[in-house]
Structures are given as C-alpha cells and as structure tokens.
Design a protein that fits this description.
Number of helices: 10
Largest sheet: 7 strands, mixed
Structural class: alpha/beta
Order of helices and strands: EEEHEEEEHHEHEHEHEHEHEHEHE
Strand content: 25-35%
Helix content: 25-40%
Distance between the termini: 20 Å
C-alpha cells in the first residue's frame, strides 16, 4: 500500500502535538471520494480539537474540516478522476480523518465540484470560510439589501468573508477589531464603519446607527453576545456563529434579562449542504474576477503546521491561514 505524509494528532495538547508522519494512503469505498489535497485552510474548529474543547473526537486523528484538490478515486462514480473539488465538514477531522494530509477520503456528500484557475492557496482559503459566512448571512440572518449589519470579530477569516459578502449583497457593514492597528485593514476590505471593540460597543454602534443594526453576526462568543444584542434594532436579528474567545456559555442565562425587547436571536452551525455548489462556484468566480476580495494572511508548508496553529491560537492573523500540500 502506498504511503503519504499527514499531520496526526494523538490527543489534545500544545501546537507541538501536531506531528507530520508517514501513514498509509486511505482507501475509498463506494459513496466516498479520495481527494489528492492541494491545500487546506485552518479553522477555529481545529484549534478546539487540539485544545480538548471539541465534543466526541476520535483519537488518533488527522485533523482538518476542509481541503481542496483533485479527485483521485470515486468508486461510486460521483466524480471523475482529476476533477477539481472542495471537501468540507461532514465529520471531517472529527469522526474520521480530515484534510491535513496529502490525501483524504470523505463522503461524496461533503464534496463540492468547482472549476477555476485560481491558485490552490487562494482556493484553499475559501470552502469553510464561505460556507460559514454564507450560511450565517442567509440562513441565520436572512439579510436583505439596504440593511445594516454588525460583524463582531471582523478580522477573523469568517469575519472578513462575512463583511465582504454582506457588502457585495448591498448592506452597510460595521465590523469590529480589538486592535486599533487593524481598523484600516477593515476599511480596506470594504467595511463602512470599523469599530474598536472595547468589550462594550453597543453605545458606539448606536451612535453610528441610532436605531441599532438590522443584523449582527456574533463571532466572538457568549461573553460579548449580550452587548451585541443591545446594539441590534427592534425586530433585528443576531446570529451566534463563533466563539473566538472560547466563551461558549452565558452563566445563569435568563433570556428576559439578556435578550432585548423584540430582538431575535438565532444560531448557525451548518454543513456543506448549506453552501450549494452553484453558490460556491459563483463566489469562486467573483474572487477570480477580483470582485470579491479574499484575505490570505499567510501560506504555510505542511511541516509548518505547528507555527500556523500558534498564529491562529494567538489571534495574529487577519484573514485566512492556508497550508499548501501539493
């Protein structure tokens, strides 16, 4: 059996626990697709896996909830060998081995076809980032042109993507950062009103939008959610999607005290099916045409995975961290 290089995690630990090893190339069975991985993006989900915050992981495991590359084998005939694809979610890197490898085998339902001349590193930044941003905006918030939206956690990869997609959809965008030095970067990505996040921003948001925003995407966590709700208009909607702060729970949650009168609270934690193939292709085409800016903070080699995770853990990146494999 042929071998490949892959990042293997034996259990929760520091960044050094992510070790590149030589392991057998996985076999694909009917209903599954083997992808020759060209690149993959890093996600907060993999940080949670490494630090022991993930629920019900299987160890040892190859992490990675997304990857892009070409079809190497599809016994069920769903795809042709050599076809460009993205793979995401569906249990990748949690229930079975994921994308931190030269090859990965995933359910056909987790594979999305794509045609593009984008370089692999740029394409590798897109699948999970776009899936989460698209799902949060359209499933969680049901955004409409002309609305105002607050993206809390605006310099994260999903935050940047959500701001760009919302702006492209015709919304006025407010987005936050805790670092004054990053306010200009938000503006460069089309954010209309960069906001310095001091932990309490509702008053500042309402100074910009007196009645409160129509929609708000919460990516920081439960610790900032009450303040985000206070920044939102009556009949406006807040979607809880991310936990960049690793704060998952509001202690002694009393809805009447936390949720303002008439403000709607939803959540998003969807799957690849929430990003239809035609929507993914449309976004990829917009990126290729220069109409949808994508921020790739840095591209790493597979052997640099520990350093990439360190940068992610420390919140040093603006945009997406990507690993180029082939």
């Amino acid at each position: 059996m042929a071998n490949m290089r892959a990042v293997v995690l034996d259990g929760p630990g520091p960044v050094e626990a992510l070790r590149v090893r030589t392991v057998p190339v996985p076999e694909a069975r009917p209903g599954w697709v083997r992808v020759k991985v060209a690149a993959f993006g890093l996600n907060r989900s993999e940080y949670h896996l490494r630090t022991g915050q993930a629920s019900n992981p299987v160890f040892p495991i190859i992490p990675g909830i997304e990857a892009v590359g070409t079809v190497d084998a599809a016994p069920g005939g769903e795809y042709e060998p050599g076809q460009q694809v993205a793979a995401m979610m569906g249990g990748m890197g949690r229930a079975f081995d994921g994308g931190y490898a030269e090859y990965t085998v995933v359910p056909a339902s987790a594979v999305v076809p794509v045609r593009t001349d984008l370089d692999w590193a740029t394409l590798g930044a897109l699948p999970e980032m776009l899936q989460t941003a698209h799902g949060s905006l359209h499933t969680g918030l049901a955004i409409q042109p002309g609305q105002t939206i607050l993206v809390r956690g605006g310099t994260s990869s999903v935050g940047v993507a959500a701001a760009v997609l919302a702006k492209h959809a015709g919304l006025t965008v407010l987005a936050t950062t805790r670092d004054p030095g990053r306010l200009a970067a938000l503006r460069e990505h089309g954010v209309d009103h960069p906001v310095l996040d001091t932990g309490s921003i509702a008053e500042e948001v309402r100074r910009i939008v007196p009645g409160g925003v129509d929609a708000a995407l919460e990516l920081v966590g439960a610790n900032t959610l009450p303040d985000t709700l206070r920044a939102t208009a009556v009949r406006g909607t807040v979607c809880f999607t991310g936990m960049l702060s690793d704060n998952w729970v509001i202690p002694d949650f009393y809805p009447m005290a936390v949720i303002p009168n008439g403000v709607r609270l939803t959540a998003y934690s969807g799957e690849s099916s929430d990003l239809p193939a035609e929507a993914f292709q449309r976004y990829v085409d917009l990126v290729a045409a220069g109409e949808l800016p994508v921020r790739v903070h840095r591209v790493y080699a597979l052997d640099e995975i520990a350093e990439a995770h360190r940068v992610m853990a420390n919140g040093e990146a603006i945009g997406k961290l990507v690993v180029r494999v082939h």
